[in-house]
Amino acid sequence: MRLSRYFLPILKENPKEAEIVSHRLMLRAGMIRQQSAGIYSWLPLGLKVLSKIGNIVREEQNRAGALELLMPTIQSADLWRESGRYDDYGKEMLRIEDRHEREMLYGPTNEEMVTEIFRSYVRSYRDLPLNLYHIQWKFRDEVRPRFGVMRGREFLMKDAYSFDVDQEAARAAYNRMFVAYLRTYARMGLKAIPMKADSGPIGGDMSHEFIILASTGESQVFCHRDLLEMPIPPEDTDFQSDLSGTVKAWTSFYAATEEKHDEAAFAAIPEDKRVAARGIEVGHIFYFGTKYSEPMGAKVAGPDGVEKPVHMGSYGVGVSRLVAGIIEASHDEAGIVWPDQVAPFNVGIINMKVGDAAVDGACNELYQRLTKSGLDVLLDDVDGRAGGKFATMDLIGLPWQIIVGPKGLAEGKVEVKRRATGERELMTPDAAVAKLIGA
Amino acid sequence: MRLSRYFLPILKENPKEAEIVSHRLMLRAGMIRQQSAGIYSWLPLGLKVLSKIGNIVREEQNRAGALELLMPTIQSADLWRESGRYDDYGKEMLRIEDRHEREMLYGPTNEEMVTEIFRSYVRSYRDLPLNLYHIQWKFRDEVRPRFGVMRGREFLMKDAYSFDVDQEAARAAYNRMFVAYLRTYARMGLKAIPMKADSGPIGGDMSHEFIILASTGESQVFCHRDLLEMPIPPEDTDFQSDLSGTVKAWTSFYAATEEKHDEAAFAAIPEDKRVAARGIEVGHIFYFGTKYSEPMGAKVAGPDGVEKPVHMGSYGVGVSRLVAGIIEASHDEAGIVWPDQVAPFNVGIINMKVGDAAVDGACNELYQRLTKSGLDVLLDDVDGRAGGKFATMDLIGLPWQIIVGPKGLAEGKVEVKRRATGERELMTPDAAVAKLIGA
Question: Which of helix, strand or coil describes residue B79?
Fold first, then answer.
């Protein structure tokens, strides 16, 4: 993409309404625009990151055997009356009346609807296990939306729902999602720690929040340091196999959010292994048994012909929230530092003298070659001051920069800068191409 | 994908509520499920088609220089008051009150919001031309939603908005979308004819509906037969160049919907060149000048420093409607006949004797080899009657079928069937793989 043809409205001033760094940087980098309280447009740069994150989530859900569908945003109130939640949900639910005065709502979550889909079609244990997920916009009418897309009202979530014949099978489904989540966040360049979470009235050990550590995090978390270095299950993990060993390894170390924190258990950890830090919740997996299948009549016949309510779990990833979460975890004074895997562009080329035939030519050639090799490249071909160009490129945080100026070119060289480290290296354009394609 | 692990709830009976063939086939093939009047879940098979169509639209918008962003579904009523449309829109607009009693609405379209984004950031003619689009769910509270996703209430639309300094530049923007639309529909295996459409109070010639011909179409249309054979602009079309020649070639032939039909002009066409047919609208492009920029104050300074309202156009593609439209245009007695480019899977393999080691082995090997070569393959590995298996595979309309049974295999052969023609051919598994990879 050539910057001259792109829509990248950079803000020079720090927006006053932004209280946290990710909100400030997303506004300044032209990633989002607020349309109403807690409701945002995703401008081109922001949408690219959102899509890349969504695709990683999708690939890992698919790998784990979950099936993607897409439920609508608008739901009927009657469906929520079946589970009893229509009256319970309170003011966070955006309630709507249509032209025929039917009560509708903007879905804040989809347990009821997916249970309705399940019960309409599935009758036998032979059709299980089943895990259905979607990546769809949700609405929660927060009383005081804040922190940008970190706590918006309209937000993008991946929510998966598993259906199993009994609790043992539901645990296997839970373990598949547990492992899929470990892989999902790692692929985004994040360290996400599964932490024991509230399991509600059902009790049991099948409820984990996935928390990324960031000094600006919303809540206090505690864990064993070894969790930070645990190996991530590999790409060729067999999701048909027994994954309880992996889950056991991860859950054998202490890890808890403030709500579930056990001071005594934490004190029992050797002092140099204790991590007390700030964290951001970016996912939650949760077994809830027959909470919805029972009142809604979602049953399957077992091998003995007897019908029983299915055992369900739900598995959420905050896709739009992750964009902010990654920035909280990865930024510096100059702006965002995107992990390679979710960066909106892999490389930014800075043309230091627009209109100079040699510089223009070298920039164009680099742009063509890198683009052809499959990299996503942003070419700053706009006439402007060097300082402003550097500041913009640092602000938007592309992993690599190639700076092309007349002086360097006269010696056959361009400068390659790694955003994360600030490391700079002079090299020939050929060497730059080779380096970035191999990176 | 193995059918044993997929969610494909086929209906054996024709659903009574479905009045048109696409609605009937989408329900029967397990592509959609109605959740409320005019509101559908997209089940896995349906979502795959929806995504493929969306991606073709996206690629062609990007090729034409339009930039993707994503505006939210929920908008503020105040924004619509600025253009005067809040009161005008009537009951098709789903009006919502949030917990703070602010008036909101579920966007039926986005002229106001995109104009607000534009005016917030763009000040100079130097930042033009600009074309911003998104692919987002819309809601129109139809009084009597019907025909499945053809006329749903919650529907997926691509809407693009162009911003230009004057009418001449706006015409160039219009022409780029005109050409992009020709390519978009052709890539889906459709013949879509641009037809003169109502241009509203502005008048002029810059308003076209894109209509696909289908005997079950919703409206009567008329055109010159030569339009059916017009060449489609190639992939390497230079969208920076003057495209008026292409647009002129397409618009020089008679083509009109019933509303704009001119009996005398139609009669002047040689009789064998007259086409009177049924059609389905799948897109609309439209220049509306300063209709929104004027009241909303979206202005740019020209080279002379004088500020003027920008000239705008809008360009819609009914993405979810297209899924039904393609089925209306391409089906037979046995079910859907997907064009290759939008088929949910490229190939279906039918295992005729599940549990037979040779047949299972041959199916698995075909599945692996075709999948590795990049094809999307559905393997029917479920034990069942031959008749039911054939019927399901024909119903869901995958372009190619490979039928693997013990008799054929004993002679080293499988059967390859082309869904569209019914043509069948016996060949070795190697030959089948070669044929489908090359197809």
Answer: helix
pLDDT at A197: 86
For residues B241 and B303, state if they share a domain: yes
> Where among A336, A365, A383 does a domain terminate?
A336
Residue A360 inside a domain? The answer is: yes
pLDDT in the model for residue B204? 76
Q: Do A67 and B74 touch (CB under 8 A)?
A: no
Judge if A25 and A67 occupy the same domain: yes
What is the domain range of residue A230?
3-71+110-336
In a domain, A297, yes or no: yes
Residues 151-170 of A with CB under 8 A from B: 153-154
ipTM for the complex shown = 0.97
**Total residues found in chain B within this entry:** 439
Say if B382 is an interface residue toward chain A (CB within 8 Å): no
How far does A268 lie from chain B, in Å, by closest CA? Answer: 45
Condensed to tens digits (0 to 9), the pLDDT of residues A273-323 reads 999 999 999 999 999 999 999 999 999 999 999 999 999 999 999 999 999
pLDDT by residue (tens digit) across A94-131? 999 999 999 999 999 999 999 999 999 999 999 999 99
- The torsion region of residue A147 among left (phi > 0), alpha (psi -120 to 50) and beta comes to left
Same-domain check for residues B290 and B422: no
Q: How many domains does chain B contain in total? A: 2
DSSP-derived secondary structure letter, B70: B
**pLDDT by residue (tens digit) across B175-217?**
999 999 999 999 999 999 999 988 766 667 899 999 999 888 8
Query: For position A357, which CATH number holds?
Result: 3.40.50.800
Q: How far apart are CA A259 and CA A352, in angstroms?
A: 53
d(CA B34, CA B49): 17
- Contact yes or no for B96/B159 (Cβ under 8 A): no
Phi first, then psi, for residue A15 (nearest 5°) are -65, 130
Domain shared by A47 and A190, yes or no? yes
A118 lies within 8 A of chain B by CB: no
How far apart are the CA of A424 and the nearest CA of chain B, in angstroms? 32
- Cβ-Cβ contacts under 8 Å for B366 (sequence gap 6 or more): B349, B402, B404, B414, B429, B432, B433
Flag whether residue A67 sits within 8 Å of chain B, measured between CB atoms.
Answer: yes
